[in-house]
């Protein structure tokens, strides 16, 4: 029924909508089951936390799927789906636009409203035009016209604060994206006037807010062209209580970490000297490192979460005898973290499209005593971690300073579909 690419695309699109309320601690992931006998698709969802948010997402998705099942009886289907998407995702859209406060992790500031950033670009373009003898290009004129329409739509929303006025904002931004060469316009502004990170942020906001309008079109056309999309069901996974239990652990000791340095292949005679140099570079001491390690591990053991991708993989392992056709992909509303990515690799039966590379200390495996699958995955992941630590130690000692990595964009969009234009 679905090609591998179509299965991935459907899972990614549903995951995007499923993150309907702002909560960085409640990230959903999705798998698509194909029921060939019934010509139907089961959409399985999981989150790392937040039961109520998951229930809200399931209910919102099922409304959309029920509408798709009705087909031409609810014509125009695309517009009705668009309304349901905005109703379901209104909180998330408003936080993306900076029109509602968002939950942030410690140390992260609230970003300025999108419309204010867009008006800032308008002002820069208009100021440049006043000092330039040449006539303003059509692309810049189109940008200014589109930006004004977006600003007007935000003003209307501020007056009415309704679903219809929020639909107007999303539609205006989507039209702005389709009718403007945003990359060229932003590239024409000197970095001294608009820093590169601000340019990336504007483009990111435009693409993500537009996606809500684009998905209404995408889902309506899939329902029109493929009977399987008229038989979609949103389902929550159910895992045994023991799955969420925590494994008892002995008191951690810093030598467990130091032993890992041996994998960096330093001669044994220099091991003590190497460890001391590492502490000097990190501006710490053995007792301080020991205390920090104990504190971090204690917090991880008590507060860590089983990410949604991991839950889905184990759900299908536990139910492989009752589900005829297993999913080939697992997709989250964000790119997979580093540990989820190597987990999926070690599991070896699913694909995840992207990895943002961040290693979260609050990640954990499920506690399933006696599971050969768990033992195999743990062994492979531990080997990958040891190699990564060894490489990091080598880099630290060669550079003589800590490497500071920029914060990656943890949520990226892929091309939706070539068929949007047909």
UniProtKB/TrEMBL annotation:
InterPro entries: OTT_1508_deam-like. This is Uncharacterized protein. The lineage of its organism: Eukaryota, Fungi, Dikarya, Ascomycota, Pezizomycotina.
